[in-house]
Amino acid sequence: MAASRRIIIGLGNPGAEYADTRHNIGFRIADAVAARARFELDQHYASAEAGEGRWKSRPFVVAKPLTFMNRSGETARALLRRTKSTAADMLVVVDDIHLPLGTIRIRRGGGTGGHNGLEDIADEIGTTDFPRLRVGIGNDFGRGQQSDYVLSPFDPAEAELVEDVVKRSAEAALCFVAEGLQTAMNRHNVRING
Questions:
Q1: Total domains, the chain
Q2: 93, 112, 180, 190: which is deepest, by most CB within 10 A?
């Protein structure tokens, strides 16, 4: 029996005004994964920009939901159905204010940490047992300013570190595709010094 397809979903908000924001680092990583595997996210299905390719002979799908962050579950549910994959085959790439910028943390499942995108996915697919790649964006904001912070662009001084984080996160996602979750966790749970 053939192995099920792996899925990489990068979370973010559609629209040019959100493109370079902290909240959209999942989109940047999804683009980097597709570019590294040499395919385009030029298909539209499951309420997402998506593309399909292979990495080290493993077929996989990359998607960026066209819904807003807090409605990402619609895409996750539709992709699982379309690919006949399980929640364990789906890696969700998401920003995390609880981790410093430069930190990449892959987990097998667990809580949503209050992240609206993860919460919606868990609600739509009926479980929190799906892998996620949490990418630290820091939390340098005052009381009541979280929304403004996550919807702001990275500081120019952070640009080099952000590029490194995107590259390393894409490598981690491709490791998940080719070698599985445990190897990806062992190899790529890191803190990059900025």
A1: 1
A2: 93
Say if strands 103-107 and 132-136 run parallel, antiparallel, or are unpaired. Answer: antiparallel
* Pure H helices in 96-180: 116-125, 146-150, 159-179
Dig out the tokens for 166 from the structure: 């995107």
Q: Would you say residue 164 lies in a domain? A: yes
Give whole-number Cα distances, 78 to 74, 82, 83, in Å: 6, 6, 9
Any idea what the CATH number is for the domain that residue 156 is in? 3.40.50.1470
pLDDT tens-digit map of 144-163? 899 999 999 999 999 999 99
- pTM value? 0.95
Q: Supply the range of the domain harboring residue 34.
A: 6-191
Distances (CA, A) of 172 to 12, 136, 141, 144: 19, 14, 28, 33
Residue 1 lies in a domain: no
- Report helix, strand or coil for 48: strand
Torsions phi, psi for 34 (to 5 deg): -60, -45
166 part of a folded domain: yes
CA separation, residue 108 to residues 18, 47, 89 (Å): 28, 25, 10
Residue 178 lies in a domain: yes
Active site residue 44: no
Active-site hit among 23, 44, 115, 188 = 23
